[in-house]
Amino acid sequence: MTFSDIFKTSFLENVTSVTILDMVIAMVLAFAIGLFIFFIYKKTSAGVMYSSTFGVTLIALTMITTFVILAVTSNVVLSLGMVGALSIVRFRTAIKEPLDIAFLFWSLAAGIVLAAGIIPLAVFGSVVIGVIILIFANRKDNTNPYIVVLRCMDSASEKSADEFLKTRTKRCQVKSKTARKGEIEVNYEIRLAEDNTDFINELSDMNGVESAVLVSYNGDYMG
Asked: 66 with 114: CB under 8 angstroms?
C-alpha cells in the first residue's frame, strides 16, 4: 500500500464518518438555538449596554462550535490538532456585563451538546436556561442602591435634610462628607422604600439646601 492509498482511504473514511443528514440537522438546530439565545440576550439586555454585534456573535458561535465538534468527533487525529490550534488563540475583547459571560458559555455548550448528538438535552437545557434568565434578569427591584449628592449651606440644613432622607428611604448611609466655608457636601447611599423618586424634588426645595442630585448605582456597598 502506497502513501497515496493511505491518504485516499483516510479521506474517504472521514467523509463518510458524518452523514450529510447529520450535518444538516446539526447546523439547522445550531442556528435555531443560537437564534433563541440571541432573542433572550436582546430581551434581557438593558439600555446602552445592548450590542447587536454581540447578539450575532452568539448565533455564529453556536454554529461554529457545532461544526468544529462534528469534525473533532469524527477523527481522533484531527481532535488533537484542533486542541493545539485553539490553544494559541487569545481573546482580548472586554466583557462589559457579567451576564454576557453566561451567554458565551451557553452558546459554546449548546454547540458542543448538539454536535455530540444529544439533541433533547440541547433543546430542553436551552429552554430552561432561557426562561430562568428571562425571569431573573427582567426582575425589577426597588432596593437597588442610589447615590444622593447633597449640597447644604450649613449644618442645620444638613441635619434637616438627613432626617428627611431617613424618613423617605428604606436605608440611608453617609458615604462621604466635604465641608467648605459656607458649603457642606454630603454623599449618601440610599435604598428606596418604593419605586418613587419624587422625594428628591422636595429635598431640593428645603431651606438651606442648594442642590440635591440622585444617581443610580449598580455597586454593592451595603450588605
From this structure: yes
